[in-house]
Design goal:
Layout (H helix, E strand, L loop, with lengths): L1 H9 L3 E7 L10 E3 L5 E6 L5 E8 L8 E4 L3 E2 L6 E9 L15 E9 L2 E9 L6 H5 L6 E7 L6 E8 L3 E14 L2 E3 L2 E3 L2 E2 L8 E4 L1 E2 L3 E12 L5 E10 L3 E4 L3 E4 H26 L8 H21 L2 H26 L13 H5 L2
Antiparallel strand pairs: 1-12, 2-5, 3-4, 4-12, 5-11, 6-11, 7-10, 7-12, 8-9, 8-11, 12-15, 13-14, 14-17, 16-18, 18-19, 20-21
Helix pairs in contact: 3-4, 3-5, 4-5
Length: about 350
């Protein structure tokens, strides 16, 4: 069961968004150079939601070199950052009399220091649209994700370079990955950033939960580049006088014994003093049955106290004690009234009317 719990924990991936143009309601205000290149416009995505986009389409002019620089993005504690780009590109072959300089790609770069641009990748479209698609409002949106690192400065700028494409940059989302805080093997592991490389493994030291202590080697988990926990090493166990409850809680045995004591006392008191008093005329004749209901109540009280919380076990013990006594009393009474079976209808008098 612990292994299955760990598998479920691993699939919960954590990401933190640093910038997302899809949520922008005002102008983005990015820097375009030259001014005749990228242009900011209001547009619509494939779901007809209003978005702020940048577009460029100087396909009939040769030697294009249009730059688009974002605003400053703070790095926070991230060492590796991911960029999700959603864009559309016009098919060059669908443009009449277009020169051979028409492109269907653009370049993504990053700038950490003034004047120092580092190329991330050349981005190509999986799908491009034609004039027919455009006339029919059929959008062929491409989504590409790239990552870069390690990062060391307080932040960075993203830049997009066009060499002669007819395209729209619909949205840009910048985010980093992290392994979320988790409780595993009776230890708490803090939220941990992924490493500088996609293959990095970052060690996270665990701390035993309350009323637990370390066993064997120091406890730790590894956070991989995808924000997944993996390779558990070591564990904690409940201290003496405590026991596991709900897989990652150490519950005091004293509390369990208190629960048992209260539940048993209530069961006995209810069985002996409350329910039999409802039927005083038959009390002596069904005394063995009352003892049976007491024994059953005690057994159920102990069982419930071990596996349930103290409040729930006491509540169920009270209810089951009353119900068991009523059922046993009814059975015993009917066995003595075989000559009059019509009088043996179980109505739950003690449970429903008197308690």
């Amino acid at each position: 069961s612990e292994y299955l719990t760990f598998i479920l924990v691993c699939i919960i991936l954590g990401t933190e968004t640093m910038m997302d143009t899809r949520t922008a309601t005002a102008e983005l205000g990015w820097t375009a150079y030259p001014a005749s290149g990228w242009e900011e416009v209001s547009g619509y995505d494939e779901n007809l939601n209003t978005i702020r986009t940048y577009q460029v389409c100087n396909v009939f002019e040769p030697s294009q070199n249009n730059w688009l620089l974002t605003t400053f993005v703070r790095r926070r504690a991230a060492q590796r950052v991911y960029v999700e780009m959603r864009f559309t590109v016009r098919d060059c072959s669908s443009i009449p009399r277009v020169p051979g300089s028409c492109k269907e790609t653009f370049t993504s770069t990053i700038r950490e220091r003034p004047g120092a641009y580092l190329k991330v990748d050349t981005i190509a479209a999986d799908e491009s649209f034609s004039q027919v698609d455009f006339g029919g409002r059929l959008m062929k949106v491409n989504t590409e994700v790239r990552s870069f690192g390690p990062l060391s400065r307080n932040g960075f700028y993203l830049a997009f370079q066009d060499y002669g494409a007819c395209m729209s940059l619909l949205s840009v989302r910048v985010f980093y990955k992290k392994c979320p805080s988790v409780v595993q093997n009776f230890a708490v592991f803090p939220e941990t950033m992924t490493g500088a490389e996609s293959t990095s493994l970052v060690i996270a030291r665990g701390t035993c939960i309350p009323n637990a202590e370390e066993v064997d080697v120091p406890i730790k988990l590894y956070c991989n580049g995808d924000g997944e926990w993996m390779v558990p090493i070591g564990s904690c166990t409940c201290k003496a006088g405590f026991e596991p409850d709900n897989s990652n809680v150490c519950r005091g045995k004293r509390l369990m014994f208190t629960s048992i004591y209260l539940s048993v006392c209530l069961s006995v008191c209810l069985s002996v003093y409350i329910c039999p008093s409802v039927h005083p005329s038959v009390r002596p004749s069904v005394r063995p049955s009352v003892r049976l209901s007491i024994y059953l109540s005690i057994y159920l009280s102990i069982y419930l106290s071990i596996y349930l919380s103290i409040y729930l076990s006491i509540y169920l013990s009270i209810y089951l004690s009353i119900y068991l006594h009523e059922l046993v009393w009814h059975t015993a009474s009917c066995s003595r009234k075989a000559s009059s079976p019509s009088s043996c209808t179980f109505t739950g008098v003690c449970t429903i009317w008197h308690v």
